[in-house]
Amino acid sequence: MDKQKRKKKIRLATAWLGGCAGCHMSLLDLDERLIDLFEVVELVYSPIADIKTFPKAVDVTLVEGAVANVDHLELAEVIRRNSTIVVSFGDCAVTGNVTSLRNRLKIDDLLTKVYHEGPGTAPRGLEEDGIMPALIPKVLPLHQVIHIDGYLPGCPPEPDHIWQAVSTLLDGQPVRLTQEMRYFG
Amino acid sequence: MSVVTLHINDEIVSARSDQKLLEVIREQGIEIPTLCHMDGISELGGCRLCLVEVKGSNRLLAACVTPVQEGMSVYTHSERLVNYRHITMELLLSERNHTCAVCVMNGHCELQYEAAELGVDHVRYEYMTPDLPIDASHSKFTLDHNRCILCMRCVRVCDEVEGAHTLDVMGRGTNSRIITALNRPWGDSISCTKCGKCVQVCPTGALFEKGSSVGEMEKRHAFLSWILNGRERKEWHW
């Protein structure tokens, strides 16, 4: 990243849909490179920053997680509208991964298995109850919902791979990973 | 054995007339992906990753089952082939539930490796996410249909090398399944010798040793040439 050339900071966002937060943990594992990163970017939205609404005019957004419920659908569309570059960040966003393991079950069966037959009160399924967002019938990889500009697979992606992808992106290049950085899982 | 001359990517190459294209292409040091081919068992032409273009033929031909011919001109990495291999890999990944992150073969899997090699960083098709069973009735091994790509290496090695033919295939198209003991639980099989050859040749996590957790299963392909060299040439070098 050439710090001299750039006066205005790049507006970076990260979002968290149906995932375990592991990709964000891996992002934090950039460790001291985070200091270099924040010299050139401004973090405008992220689960690790206390910002409530997704802002406008974002340059790059990394999205962790698959699309599993109606809230994810809505946020994904806002992210697409307000971001120049959207990257599927980690296997759940790229393939559905662990989040999509429930796809072989019908939603009602799923909730019955996990909640109604388990302890406590069961949340609602397909219908919105104002508290829990309704699940969509099949968990979807992000690119089946919105257009995606780059893919960063891995469960989670290694910090080095994140660094490689993010630094090329911030240099205005498309995400191009070498073979050893492209593995699912 | 007579010798034939052919062109591979515009280079003149000679081959024995009984050779298949795949072998000759690999002898030239050209990498070509395969998932169903394995040295030591018969060829199937099932995975379609080794497709090549042969001048004068509109069809793409699987190199592993195509015999060499005098004067043929073969291309291994044309734009059309690269595109089709990419599509084939995406279809393989979309057909069953290949969740690498929670698979016993994560990090050692041939399907995972070839996907990365072919540049597949996402799948453009809808995932079929079929509801498939896992047969854990065997005392030593598990058959997980979620990870199976129907390469049939297990079927062939069980029949051709072990001589047991415990494994076979049932059904058509996307309903095809590997079966054991004439479609009974593997653990009930009286023909299975528990030799584990099927497990060792399986390219994915469809067949694995019981007790393996995520990423713990590694396959030892080399055992097959060891057995076959021993049997056929009486050379026993591990």
Automatic annotation (TrEMBL), chain A:
| A Pfam family this chain is assigned to | Oxidored_q6
Oxidoreductase as UniProt keyword: yes
What are the NADH:ubiquinone oxidoreductase-like 20kDa subunit domain coordinates in residue numbering? 20-168
Q: Name one GO cellular component term.
A: periplasmic space
Q: State the Gene Ontology terms under molecular function.
A: DNA binding; iron-sulfur cluster binding; oxidoreductase activity
Q: Does the keyword Oxidoreductase apply?
A: yes
* InterPro entries xref list: Hydrogenase_assoc-protein, NADH_UbQ_OxRdtase-like_20kDa, NiFe_Hase_small_N_sf
- List, alphabetically, the Gene3D superfamilies matched: NADH:ubiquinone oxidoreductase-like, 20kDa subunit (3.40.50.700)
- Predominant location category: periplasm
The name under which this protein is listed is: NAD(P)-dependent nickel-iron dehydrogenase subunit HoxY
Give the species this sequence originates from: Desulfofustis glycolicus DSM 9705
TrEMBL record, chain B:
What's the protein here called? NAD(P)-dependent nickel-iron dehydrogenase diaphorase component subunit HoxU
Q: Which InterPro entries match?
A: 2Fe-2S_ferredoxin-like_sf, 2Fe-2S_ferredoxin-type, 4Fe4S_Fe-S-bd, 4Fe4S_Fe_S_CS, NAD-red_Hydgase_HoxS_gsu, NADH_UbQ_OxRdtase_ferredoxin, NADH_UbQ_OxRdtase_Gsu_4Fe4S-bd, PSI_iron-sulfur_center
**Its principal location?**
membrane
Cofactor(s) annotated in UniProt: [4Fe-4S] cluster; [2Fe-2S] cluster
Q: Name its species.
A: Desulfofustis glycolicus DSM 9705
Give the UniProt subcellular location, in the record's own words. Membrane
One GO cellular component, as annotated:
membrane
Please give the PANTHER family that the UniProt record associates with this protein.
Answer: HYDROGENASE SUBUNIT, PHOTOSYSTEM I IRON-SULFUR CENTER-RELATED
Residues forming the 4Fe-4S His(Cys)3-ligated-type domain are 80-119
Indicate the family of this protein.
Belongs to the complex I 75 kDa subunit family.
One GO MF term on file is:
metal ion binding
Q: Where is the 4Fe-4S ferredoxin-type domain?
A: 139-170, 183-212
Q: What keywords sit in the KW lines? A: 2Fe-2S, 4Fe-4S, Homeobox, Iron, Iron-sulfur, Membrane, Metal-binding, NAD, Translocase
The 2Fe-2S ferredoxin-type domain is annotated at 2-80
List all membrane-crossing ranges. Answer: none
Q: Which NCBIfam families would you find in this protein's record?
A: PRK07569.1 (NF005745)
